Structure formats: C-alpha cells, structure tokens
Amino acid sequence: MDTLKRIKYEVITKAAKLALKGNRILSERKFKTPKRWRTDILAPPLKIGLRTKELVTRHYLEGRYAEGAKPVAWVTSGAPVEILKALGFYVLYPENHAALCGARRTALELCLEAEKSGYSMDICSYARCDFGALISGKTPVGKLPKPDLLLCCTNICQTVLYWYRVLEKHFNVPLVVIDTPFLYREAEEHHIEYVKNQLDKLVEVAERVSGKKLKFERLKETLRLSKMAAELWHEVIQTGKNVPSPISVFDQFIHMAPIVEMRGDAETVDFYAEMLKELQERIEKGVSAVVKERRRLLWDNLPIWYKLKFLSEFLAERGIAIVTSTYTNAWGELAPMMDPQRPIESMAKTYLYPILNRGVGHKLKTMKEMIKDYSLNGAILHSDRSCKPYSVGQIDERNRLISELGVPALLLEADHNDPRAYAEEQVRTRLSAFAEMLES
Amino acid sequence: MKRLFVGIDAGSTAVKVVVIDSEKRVLYTLIEDTKPFIEEQTGSILKAIREKFSGCEFFVTATGYGAQLVKEADKRVTEISCHARGAFFATGKKGTVIDIGGQDSKVIVVGNDGQVLDFVMNDKCAAGTGRFLENIAWRLKLSFKEMEELALSSREEVSISSTCAVFAESEVISMLAKGIELKKIVKGIHRALVKRITAMLYSVSFFPPLILSGGVARNRAVQKMIEEETGEKIIVPENPQITGALGAALSGL
Ligand code: SF4
After folding, report:
1. What domains, with CATH codes, occur in chain B?
2. Structural domain total, chain A
3. Is B72 helix (H, G, I), strand (E, B) or coil?
C-alpha cells in the first residue's frame, strides 16, 4: 500500500468523520419533520435517520480515498466479511451500492448501460447496475474504489458466482468463492467442515493480498461486534410485535444499510442500540409508524427500492402497516449462531443458514411463525423478477398461507431495482383490491 | 326524494353504466366504447341520466381503470370487489368469477356472503385479455361474431406457441402465409386465451361454479373451451359485461 495515500486517507476520513458527526448533531438539535411528510398518515421520520445518513455517507466517502491506501475488497451481501474486517480491509458491497442507486432512481440508467454492452435483461438488476456502473463510471456516490480482492459467497444465489467472475476478469484481481451447499434440511457436519476449509483458504488469500497476518483476537472481537449488531437489529425488528407497531418495514429497509455493510464495526452496535431506544420511546408514547394502523401485514422478498415512498403512503392511507419482512429478518435471525469464541467454525455454520440457502419449506415456516408472532392479518409477496431464488415457490407459499393460516395473501409483481418491470396502475389496482378485501 | 344508485365501470375498452333503485331493481343500463377523454364522456353520461331520472337523488360509485376520472363519483371501489358483488347478486351463490376484460383478466373467489376470499390478476402482459382477441380480429379483419363462429365451426385447431400478444399476431400472419385454414387458426387463438385464463384459475384455490363476466364472456367459443379445460360448469349472467357496473351500483347502497 502507498504510504502517502494512506496518510491522505487518514487525514481526509478523520476530518470528514468529525465534520459529518458535527453536522449530524446540529441537525439532531433542530430536527424537524420535513414539510412534505404526510403526518396525517405516518409518524414523523425516525431521528436515527440522521445517523444512517451520516454512516452511509462516510462509508462511501472512505471508499473514495481507500484505493491504494487500504486493501479493498468487494463482497456479496452474505459473505463472511468478519475475516476481511479483522485484516483491515475496506469492504464494498456492490449489492448495497446498487440498492442505493435504486432508491436514488439511477438504477435504470445503469441497467441500460449494462444492456447496451450485451448483458441480458434477465440478469438480476443488482448485477446489471453494478456492471453499468463499472462500464460508465457513473455512481451517485462519486467514485467506487477498485478492489484488490473479490469475495463471493453463494449462500444467496448462483447469480453472484457469474457476476463475480465478470468482476474478476474486469479487475484482474483474486476471487475467492465460498461455496455453501444448499440446505434442504439442517447442516451436516461435513457441510460445515467443507465451508470451514474454504474459510481457511480465504484467510490465506486475504493475508497475502493485505500483506498482514490475521490476529485471532481481532477476529474474535469483530465477530463479537457482528453478533451484537445482529442481535440488536433483530430486537429492532421485533419491536414490530407491539400493536400498533412503532416501526414499518419501510423504516427497516432504509435503516438496514449498516447491518449489511458495516457488520463488525463498533459504531454499528451503537447505531442499533440507539435505534432500539428510539423505538422503545415510541412504544412508551404510543406512537405508531402508521397513524391509523388497522391491518398489519408481512412483506416477503426484497424491497421495491424506487417505490418505497409511494408504497408506504399508499398503504398507510388505507390503514395498512407492513410491520415486518422475511428479508430484513434475515440479517438478525442468525445472530445466535455466531460464537466469538469459535469464530471460524461458527462462521462456517452461520453462513450456511441464510434463508435463501434453505428450502422453500423453511421460508414458509418462517412466514407462518412471523404471522403468528407479529399478530399479522395477511401478507404481500413481492414476486421479484430479478431475484429468482427468493421468488421461486411464492405461488405455493401464498396458497398455503391462505389455506393453512386463513390469512389473505397477495402476489405483487415487480422488480427490486428495474422500474420497467413495475406497472403502477396495476399495482394500485391490486393493492386497493387487497385493502378492500382485508376490510371486508 | 327518490334515491338512485349509479354504478360506472370505466374500463379500457368500454364504459358500462347501471342505475338501480334502493330495492336493487335495475332501471337502466348503458355500454359505450371508451373515448379518449373519459372525464368528459362520463360527465355527459351522468348528465343524461340526471335528465332522464329528473327529480331523483343520485349516489355515484365508480370503478375500473378510469375510476379516478369520474369526477362526480361519491365513492370509488376496485373492480375486484365490484365484479364479486355484481356476480354474487346475479347468481345468488358463492363461486369463482372469471372476468376477462379489455386490459386485464381476473379470477375472484367469492364467499358465501359475496365477500372476496381471494383474487388473482393477469400479470403485466396482454396475452390473457380481451385485447388479445381484439388485436387478432383487427389483423384478420373479422368481427367478434365472425371470430366466435369460426372458432365454433372448426373441429381442428393449431397451437399458438407465443405467449406474447404481439408475437402471437406475427405467428398468425405466418400461418396464414403457409396456407393454414383460417378457422383452425381462430380456434387456436381462442384456445391460447383460454389456457392463459385457466392457468390463472389454477393458481388460486377456487371452487365452482365458475361465473363469467366481462365483454369476452359472451363469446360462446370461450365459454365452451373454459368448460372443456376445467371440466366445470359455467354460469354466464344475462348481461355479463355490466357485472362490474352493477356491483359498483350495489356498493353504493
Ligand atoms: S439474484 Fe437475488 S440474491 Fe442474487 S444478487 Fe440478485 S437480488 Fe441478490
């Protein structure tokens, strides 16, 4: 690594950190609900949003100066990132970056860039966004640092495998693939052993790339912080069990960025502790996320990033609160499996268990439990054109929720990042009809 | 003052209107092609109704894609609830409504009290809708009646493989170019539509009888094929195209 760049990185990021923090504290003091906020149907925005903004801005700002100053890795959302964190890597999540592009409505432009270069429209829109950003250099965050290492874990889908092979070719840097066998039932010893061996290999490669030796104590500490953040995130989600719920799924979508891309940082733990406090205060004061909460629903699958505001208002107008989701839950439910005393072994197991690496039966079971635990009246299953592993089985899941739990469920067709697969008029009709059905 | 209930179903192909009284007696019905300016069109329809039934008080419920454009509406209800209500009123029993509209098709499972138990709509594609037949009819320069009769008269049929309404059109053209008999093609087109509809039907837990509504429901070839494909008896209300408007009028009560 380049010493000069390192010094520049340290100076700029430290100064930026202070400035962003100062700015946030100031904004907290004069915190006001934005003028166009629909206070007639929604609770004021969570104050924690200012911190989310601070953390995310800082994360991408650090990225801008990380190249050459720090080892940089690009990783999938379900990657065993603690190893890289413990070795001092700057870690970038192309999926999160793509989600940000979705929420800022620049995803379509990037998808088109990728398609122009020959990538098929049938590829996941996260991957297309990433390719589009690579090809065009366009990104709402200014600049993405080039990776020194790529880490791809197949516990979410197979798309990432081909995606990261493209990145490998493009950047000509080492790619480590962690292959996680699909779990039809529980993980067997040999599954865990198989993943553990790959993690050992990852340590070797990452040490070589970073030029450092992994300190075991540091890894333990990172995993401890990851676990704490995941536990707190899970508690944050579970405040939704309260009727009325202080949190909506849309809040969760917005505030999940740190748990995905800043796992293993001490600040992420503080962040969720603070968020939990704010939600508990809401419960005490009787503040509900949807002002007139009459019906409570479950969301399945990824968010529709470019329609968060529309959907949240459209539903809130009808007294519908989407309280929780299988998606946001995925980053909390595995916390108990992490064991900082046995970092590599427990990571090998934990990273085998994400919801997308397990059969649809398990997802159905999770949904049923959530419907009971959160006292829900129904479910919306977003059939996401891009995300095949999440969407497969949804027709049966929907029917089983109806027949076995007696709750109504709606399949809503869209795409998490590509607005061309979304038809607003049709979404309106379906949601209004579903709302009428819930009331009858 | 006598109170009347107007239901307006402003669909993508036709505007349907039903007027009922508080005894649920149908006093007036109207079906008109949808014009580009629905707001003006429904405005003048309502004006005419007010003149016709002068001295009455009106409660207007709008449904359909143009519901937002019916400015005088006192209430707006989705087509799903309206079709369920209209069909339940017409048949008096629970069942499953299949509505094949101009722009979308839906399957609605209606419970014992006429309430919606479940529904599914076609996705963002026109292949399972009335527009599909309309496009092909236009291409072949045939009227709906002629399409229906050709389909009924043919014993054989070709299979249309394209699921896309636009591609199906070119498939039909190339079949004609190959000299395939028109009636076989027309029957194949009907089959393609019906297969799409029944696939939708099987994606929900439905129960008989099947009640057809919407403009396409009058097409006897479609009726027959749905029976063939599902093995279920179907019921077609007297005027299936006004089911939604009737339901809208009823929900004003
Ligand atoms: S296919 Fe699904 S799991 Fe895979 S990257 Fe895309 S959104 Fe993520």
Report:
1. 3-84+243-251 (3.30.420.40)
2. 1
3. coil
